[in-house]
Description:
Strand content: 5-15%
Number of domains: 1
Number of helices: 17
Amino acid sequence: MSHNVNRRQFSTLTGGAALLAASGLPAVAQTPPVQSGTTGETPGARGFPEGFLWGVATAAYQIEGAWNEDGKGESIWDRYAHTPGKIKNGDTGDVAIDHYHRYKEDVALMKDIGAKAYRFSISWPRIFPDGTGQLNQKGLDFYDRLVDELKAADIEPFATLYHWDLPQVLQDRYGGWQSAETAKAFGEYAGVVAKALSDRVGHFFTINEFKQVTETAYRGVELHVQGETVRLMSAPGILLEDGPLNQVRHHAVLGHGLAVQAIRAMGRAGTKVGPAENMGHALPVIDSPEHVKAAEAATKALNIYFLGPMLEGRYDEAYLTAAGKDAPKFTDEEMKIIGAPVDFVGINVYIPLLLVMASDEPQGYREVPFSLSHPKMFSDWHRLSPESQYWAPRLLHSIWKPKEIYITENGCAASDEVAADGNIYDSDRLTYLRNGMMWQQRATAEGIPLKGSFVWSAMDNFEWINGYGDRFGIVHVDFKTQKRTPKLSAQWFKEAAWRNAVV
Length: 503
């Protein structure tokens, strides 16, 4: 990836000018970029280190459409969305935003808004319609073309192997992640994809949000925001109690470990791999040693099922003791696989789960309730806490010290009204992104190895059980015509990425 300022300026003055003219948004003044320093130097007051990646992210089922084209198999989300009453307004991802056919247009748009990296997911049933066995070459060819298009646009591809669209055959045959057979099939799939794409894709995320894949999918989750209970079901599954659920959790991290091994074996030398987890984290009430220590203890306790075993190669003894007969069954060899060293850790950062203060209690912290008047964003679950963009990577670094950290998702839904002039002035999202990046900049300035950040999402898309009702994109999509229109937040993102600084 080039970081030459003159080339950036040229891109901004050519492709960028065309974008702004087409959108009707006011042109961005071509002021000199904030100096961000070079490796080993301290960045400027608002600048990021040289090479920091300003990225955008999406997921296959939410954008691709073409749900049964070119040999693709049925996914659990195809089946779920086609079941009456499951999705708001009866929406499905059958067409979504038609990215499967419009990927060249979408890559050009990402380039125009200044994205330096793109995190996309690969549809497992597009590669293996039955989850394993016969490869669907046409499905693999699509991602081959997409990666080529990204590289030609000087956008670094980051591939996620599993973003919830499990092949339906594996759900029918094994109960999905209830069986270790699904974990084994995932490892095989990961190796095939790495062999095909790692000559151009240098970073692979294994599984996106282990809690959603397991706990939310198989039991549902309740969040309490501003005194209201919000029930989430972000992936379809069979309702399970704690005992079987602990085994499902184990199979998910086992699948991660098998994928890491497969990528090491089948990918090109130097290919990097790691998880993409929505890391539960706690905020300290005050940034002082005793309260930070309390936040570390709480954050470690929140991650005993997934990040803990993946990064330590063992389960927390207190968890196993408390689970008793419901503890997951595993072998020493499986734990070695689960704890296979990773090159980075990706974390999706939206909200803190706890606000804590120091305590003399055995656990070392005490939860402090969020005020009922604490502000939130458009989504009913989205408590506004931009400081999480700093505390999540800081706590991750202080507890486990991964080599590299990426914020693999950060963003928000907004009402996104189309103005009379055809533009979308999403001032709330712009403010949200700016504030979050200010906190991320603090993390990099303090030496936390945060290497990049991916805005969720590149474009409006199918938002799971909410269908097309919640818009997260920095590019607006008219779902009837498929017209793409960059929002005001996209203009901000372009300027910030060009300067490599908070603006």
